[in-house]
Amino acid sequence: MTYEAEKIVPYSSGENKGAQVEKMFDSIAENYDTLNRTMSMRLDIGWRKKGLSMLKKQNPQTILDIATGTGDLAIQAFDILQPQSILGIDISEGMMDVGRQKVAKAGLGDKISFEKQDCMNLQLPDDSFDAAMVAFGVRNFEDLDKGLKEILRVLKPGGELMILELSTPRHFPLKQGFWLYSKVYIPTIGRLISKDKTAYSYLPKSIEAFIQGKDMVNTLLKNGFQEASYKTYTMGTCSMYLAKK
C-alpha cells in the first residue's frame, strides 16, 4: 500500500524519498537542535519523556532508536530507562555526527552507539532488541509498511515499539491555529535559521499527509504488531503509539 506521506518529498529532484531525506537532514544537521527547540517551543522534551515512560514497565535492556537524528531520544532514554545499550540508527551521517558529539560530552559513549542504517532494510539480526523507538521520523519513511515490518523482525518476542509523531489537531480553534503554526511559523523560522530553504516547507506538508490516530493503529496491526494503542499530547499536536511484537 502507498500512503500519501510517502509521496511528499523535500525536493523536486528525481531521487527517491530516502535519498532526498538523507540530503535534507545532512544539510540542516548543524542547526537542527536549535531549530527543533525553537519550533516546538521545547515541548518535544516533555513529549519524549512521556513516550519513554510508557516503556518503563518492560525494563528494556537493549533498545533500537530508529531515525535517531542527533540522538536526543537516545540520551533521554538512557536517563529514564537505564538500559545496557542503545543503538541509534539513521540514514544521515551529518545528524549522527552531531549525536556522537553530544553522547561523548555526556560520557555515554560506552552505552549509546550510532550506525548508518536504512530502516527499510535493517542489517540487524532477528529478535535482537527488547524495545524500539522512533521520535518524529516515521513520516519520513520511504515505505511505511516495509519499515514497520523490519522493526517487528528485529524486536524480540514481547518487545515493544514506541512511536512519537507530530499530528494535526482535529477541532476548532486548535485546527486553525495549527494551520497557521505549520504553514507560516515553521517555514519562517526554518528559513531564518537554516541554510536549507526547502526543508521546513517539507515538514508541515509531511505532518499533514501522515496517517494518525486509529489509522496508524490499524497500520501497526496490519503489519504484525499486537496490542497497538495511541495517546495524544498538547491538544493533539503530538501522538504517541505503543505496540508489541
UniProtKB/TrEMBL annotation:
Its EC number is 2.1.1.163. S-adenosyl-L-methionine binds at T70, D90, D118, C119. GO terms for biological process: menaquinone biosynthetic process; methylation. Pfam families: Ubie_methyltran. Keywords: Menaquinone biosynthesis, Methyltransferase, S-adenosyl-L-methionine, Transferase. The keyword Methyltransferase applies. InterPro entries: SAM-dependent_MTases_sf, UbiE/COQ5_MeTrFase, UbiE/COQ5_MeTrFase_CS. It catalyses: a 2-demethylmenaquinol + S-adenosyl-L-methionine = a menaquinol + S-adenosyl-L-homocysteine + H(+). Pathway: Quinol/quinone metabolism; menaquinone biosynthesis; menaquinol from 1,4-dihydroxy-2-naphthoate: step 2/2. GO terms for molecular function: demethylmenaquinone methyltransferase activity. PANTHER family: 2-METHOXY-6-POLYPRENYL-1,4-BENZOQUINOL METHYLASE, MITOCHONDRIAL, METHYLTRANSFERASE. Methyltransferase required for the conversion of demethylmenaquinol (DMKH2) to menaquinol (MKH2). NCBIfam families: MenG_MenH_UbiE, PRK00216.1-5. Belongs to the class I-like SAM-binding methyltransferase superfamily. MenG/UbiE family. This is Demethylmenaquinone methyltransferase. It comes from Dysgonomonas hofstadii.
